Please model this.
Amino acid sequence: MVFSVKSSRLVAVLLLILAIQVGLVFFLCMRQLSKDVSLMDYTIVIDAGHGGMDSGKVATDGTKESDLNLAYAKTLGKMLADSGFNVVYTRTNKDGLYGLATKGFKLRDMQARKKVVESANANIVISIHMNQFAGQLSRSGPQVFYQSGATEGEKLAKCLQQTFNSHTGNHHEAISGDYYMCREMPCPSVIVECGFFSNAQDLAQLKTDAYRQTLCQLIFSGVMNYLCS
Ligand SMILES: [Zn+2]
Model:
């Protein structure tokens, strides 16, 4: 009991330290940005991956990726909105965006997300997912993906990955490939895989409020680093 009180205090202190660091990054970045830049005019689309009958990855304990993606998206969105950004979500409940659960639902779902991004006139898109790699159960931590050849997407992805690595001590690199949510977007777009369902320690911490806050603060910090780089 004493230990759990101590450890929860430690988590609270670590979160506070991180919040101060993120606040400092935000403050310094805002000073550096032109006075003409209004965060209210800077639109960030937060895309919670999957939803509805598409659960995404399902962990051994039954945790659905679609549910965690939504929780992370909401926490991140609130942080960004509280700081003045214009935040738009592709989904805010457990439903997918595909309409009827009939053939071709996955493509319809992705196309609906694209429409949200286009209607929002987004500046950047952050798509939230959870990772899985059965081939290497020890692999852990957040990892960022971007569209091959997309210069700004690569820049955003690298800023985020660097911010994650400086916290985790990992040496992961942002990975390029061909992804609908990056390729089809009219603005820089990245996929953030927040951690690995295939790693027991990652899965346990991904489900905690404290880690969700931490990870979202790191994404926030990475976005600020991108804006001011
Ligand atoms: Zn996913």
Summary: The longest strand covers residues 124-131. The chain has one domain: 2-227. The chain has a mean pLDDT of 93.
